[in-house]
Amino acid sequence: MRNDLVSQRAQSIMDSGSFQLVMDYFVNTYRKNVLESSDIADFTFGNPHEMPLQGIVDALKTWSVPRNKDWFGYKNSEPNAQAVVAKSLQRLFGMPFEPDDIAMTTGGFAAITTALKVVADSGDEVIYSLPPWFSYEPLCSEAGVSPVKVTIDLDTFDLDLAAIEQAITERTRVVIVNTPHNPTGKVVPPETLGRLAEILENASRRIGRRIYLVTDEPYNRIVFDGVEYHSPLEFYPYSFMCYSYGKTLLAPGQRMGYVAMPPTMPLDERRELREAISAVQFGSGFLFPNALLQHAIGDLEAMTIDIDHLQRKRDHVVDALREMGYEVHRPEGAFYLFPKSPIPDDQAFTDMLIEENVAVLPGVLFETPGYFRICLTANDEMIEHGLPGFARAIERASVEIAAD
Ligand SMILES: Cc1ncc(COP(=O)(O)O)c(C=O)c1O
Predict the structure, then answer these.
(1) If you measure from the C-alpha of residue 218 to the centroid of ligand 1, how many angstroms do you get, rounded to a whole number?
(2) pTM reported for the whole predicted model
(3) Are the C-beta atoms of 305 and 250 separated by less than 8 Å?
(4) All domains of the chain in start order, with CATH
(5) Which among 393, 391, 299, 227 is positioned nearest to 81, based on CA atoms?
(6) What is the pLDDT of residue 159?
């Protein structure tokens, strides 16, 4: 029987595989075992496990004092915020970004949905790589576009360019690239980005329609070992960079981000797209950040969590896990590890970890069984408390393998 209560749009979001899996994990595992236990080391979601940066608190206090009657009036992309972002992007990527090409959004989610909806229509295809951030599929469903999934090279965690090229059809409108990557922490190297740009340029010519790149980069300031970070938009002019302040500030509940178009995109197209982006943000439910965050952006832009501390946590956990026998890479950015599960059934293994008071996300949530994700926003005490649990779980897994 047709369910007339829920719209087809809502149903399609609920039906999208990753949404169901994440909700199921949230309700049946996270809520029961993690939220309700004080004894568990929480390596699941990218939430803070320490007090917020004092600078955020100070900036919000300072900028909450109204300077004029419009202080808390309706705000779209405010010129002061656009100017701050354009300057910061110029500093980071050495390109003369124009403030008008910056659309301020309520975080990365809104940036991605805006970028998708501004160029892709129902029936258009959007290519992205597995393992993906698990919200791409629901965002595609809501936008009415069809996801086309390819897999990264699981040996190097780099993009599989041949797979992307093969997946392109006449209906391809967008390719999403996420770097630094959630969940692997891979920073896509410039050689790969250059070759991807060539592929997209040639394919756009071949199919007679422009393919756009949505570059999902909320972690682009979280890189380790002095790695020189390059954005995909340095290589391909037809790009929308989607950014969120939620990661660098580790304050994901304060919703601010942006979509940026590079100055290399032809000006007449950018002019048309600026208007269209604003229209989509308006029509999708006013996806602009609230007034206070936009007032405070000059201060917020300059702040970051302690990346050296994060790098020390990465090294400590990677070294300890390798010592125990886990197969795990050392990521170049973001705040995740993506080790191999010692047994093929990653869900069974993550259940075993829960029994050892350690919570991580199984690879199936990232459509990549046989792995699991560790989030390094866990604090130092959680890490110390959690490591013996990882050791006990891999021992139990080896006993199980031996018994089989
Ligand atoms: C790869 C990726 N893109 C986008 C986002 C969305 O960021 P926000 O929640 O700040 O909008 C996330 C958040 O986890 C992410 O990991």
Answers:
(1) 6
(2) 0.97
(3) yes
(4) 8-51+306-403 (3.90.1150.10), 54-301 (3.40.640.10)
(5) 299
(6) 98
